[in-house]
Transposase
Amino acid sequence: MKTDFLEIRPIFLRNGQRTKAHVFVAMLALKITRLFQSLLHRAFGTTDDDPHATTVDDALVALSRLTYLIYEVKGCRYARLIQPDEEQCNLLDALGLRFPRQTAFRSDDTGP
């Protein structure tokens, strides 16, 4: 791997195992991104067909708005996952992902 893919090898990685791990993570990220893009194209079309089609960047911005809140009231800790909006629901459906049914949790333990 070090000889075939020298252009993707970081300079600061001299150890062969670290280089292999770096290449593995980079290739895994590429595969996930391509699958993400393929699923979005299948569900929403491409910008070649429709200039307003959802792109990977648009989808990531929309999904980044999903919020997990942790707050404390009178010694009780609460955690809540905010319900997705319509755009986020459409994206999750296109990706074949299901949002959890239970989105709130109460714990009397105030520890970390």
